[in-house]
Write a structure and sequence with these properties.
The chain is of the alpha/beta class and about 475 residues long. Helix 1 links the parallel strand 1 and strand 2. The structure holds flavin-adenine dinucleotide. The site of flavin-adenine dinucleotide has 39 residues, from helix 1, strand 2, helix 2, helix 3 and strand 4.
């Protein structure tokens, strides 16, 4: 039986980072991946496909130019599913190639097959054709991620009713789409398809959505969606879904209304992909959503040499944070004690328009009783915004009036997910409003919004 210093189950962001970090520390590493190619949900069905789809849609639809040329403007007249998928495959091939090269360069071994525990240190690998082998690990990282939650009442068929893993390989473009679940994934896909002029209805049982985002930002976002005719059905639980003879889904809502569309995307939750790991043999168990509990500082499970990272440990379930967790787990396993992670990490929601946020929302600041002031900038106030033809987009910053510290940055609009990192740096370096007042920003840029929002808050603070 082959032995390794580190065995990683799953080659998504957390597994990949843990494997490479372990190898860089001179350890022998095996990554076991049951998928056809390495990369995980992130590369094959989640982050990268959805972001590639978004970029392709924005490019082919001419979305970014519509501020100048009107809503009817198109770069390509008849956009087909094949246009979207061909670019997707090219991007994914490139991602996989880079990852394989990274593993190869660092001497990380890979095995294709499904892993399950035989004992706390032994893993069985079952290949596609049923061949079995067993490996032993001094340390093991469970980085198996999640899969879409597929409740029985949803008639998934892969042609008109999809989960969020299937939607990336859409057979054709629908005229209308219903999306169940206004979480990050549902909102991203709803707005991407709406940018293609697909008639989208977003259905959410709760009366609000993306509750962790600053409310003022969500109001701005909702205003933009309504302006584009995205139908929001909030507070509307789905009581049943029926398919017509042609496969058109009709969602019957608990409030008595119904939504019929060409296609339906069910994007309400994911569950840990742990059911086939035989965790009992390792002395481990999961919660009701298949998730594993770890010590958040060390990423160790209840069995100290077994770590878990990425979506399988739950919140925040981002590729960005998963990578960091994988690296931290590997460092801890091999005796390095990295400093604790910074207090705040950014969220990026790649909807159309983008939303990004770091630090406390205004609601959170109020709840904590911190005296504060806000500053707001609209992208249409910036020269770069004029040049780009932006009609919308805003940045909001929140500062403590006692300490002048930056407490939170919230952005909706073009480039939000890139712009946020300036705010993140100031926030985690414990910077104050003075950074934005005293520093010069490149002109014309969207980053100038930081200066405008900073001055807006500063002027209010001075007046007060
Ligand atoms: C539609 C969508 C969009 C997203 N967009 C973003 C985004 O914009 N930004 C962001 O930061 N995050 C985004 N995410 C979240 C991000 O994809 C996840 O946080 C990330 O992929 C989790 O990484 P992971 O390390 O848990 O592994 P995963 O990427 O979940 O991969 C796990 C791997 O483990 C393998 N595996 C599972 N069980 C076994 C087994 N028994 N044996 C062998 N292999 C196994 C699986 O085949 C899979 O390849 C998105 C997710 C989705 C679904």
């Amino acid at each position: 039986m082959h032995s390794f210093d580190m065995i990683v189950i799953g080659s998504g962001p957390s597994g990949r980072r843990a494997a490479v970090q372990s190898a860089k520390l001179g350890k022998s590493v095996l990554v076991i991946e049951k998928g056809r190619r390495v990369g995980g949900v992130s590369v094959h069905t989640g982050t990268i496909p959805s972001k590639t789809l978004r970029e392709t849609v924005l490019n082919l639809s001419g979305w970014r130019e519509r501020g100048f040329y009107g809503r009817g403007y198109r770069v390509k007249k008849d956009i087909a599913a094949s246009d979207l998928i061909s670019r997707l495959h090219k991007t994914l091939d490139h991602e996989v190639e880079v990852l394989e090269h990274q593993f190869g360069r660092n001497g990380v071994k890979t095995a294709r097959g499904e892993a399950s525990f035989v004992s706390p240190h032994e893993i069985e690998i079952v290949g596609d054709t049923g061949e079995r082998s067993c490996v032993r690990g001094a340390h093991i990282l469970i980085a198996c991620g999640t899969r879409p939650f597929r409740p029985d009442y949803v008639p998934f068929n892969g042609t008109t009713v999809f989960d969020s893993d299937e939607i990336v390989e859409l057979p054709r473009l629908p005229r209308s789409l219903a999306v169940i679940g206004a979480g990050v994934i549902g909102v991203e896909y709803a707005t991407i398809f709406s940018a293609l002029d697909v008639a989208v209805t977003l259905i959410e049982p709760r009366t609000s959505f993306l509750d962790f985002i600053d409310k003022e930002l969500i109001e701005e976002f909702v205003h933009e969606l309504r302006d584009r005719n995205v139908a929001l059905r909030l507070g509307a639980a789905v009581s049943s879904i029926q398919l017509s003879a042609e496969g058109r889904p009709t969602c019957r809502l608990a409030d008595g209304r119904s939504v019929t569309s060409d296609m339906l995307l069910f994007a309400a939750g994911r569950v840990g992909a742990t059911d086939r790991l035989n965790l009992g043999a390792a002395g481990l168990a999961t919660d009701h959503r298949g998730r594993i509990t770890v010590d958040p500082k060390t990423l160790q499970t209840a069995v100290p040499h077994i770590y878990a990272a990425g979506d399988v440990i739950g919140f925040p379930s981002l590729a960005s944070t998963s990578m960091e967790q994988g690296r931290l787990a590997a460092c801890h396993a091999f005796g390095l004690e990295p400093p604790p992670p910074p207090e705040f990490f950014p969220y990026g929601i790649y909807a159309v328009p983008e939303i990004s946020t770091v630090g406390m929302s205004e609601e959170e600041v109020r709840k904590r009783g911190i005296p504060y002031e806000c500053g707001v900038a609209r992208f249409r106030e910036t020269s770069r915004g004029h040049i780009m033809g932006l009609n919308n987009g805003m940045m909001k910053m929140i500062f403590s009036t006692e300490t002048r510290h930056l407490l939170g940055v919230h952005i909706v609009g073009e480039g939000a997910t890139e712009l946020i990192h300036i705010g993140q740096a100031v926030l985690n370096l414990k910077g104050t409003i003075d950074y934005f007042i005293e520093n010069t920003f490149n002109y014309p840029t969207l980053a100038e919004a930081y200066k405008i929002a900073g001055l807006d808050a500063w002027n209010r603070m001075v007046r007060a």
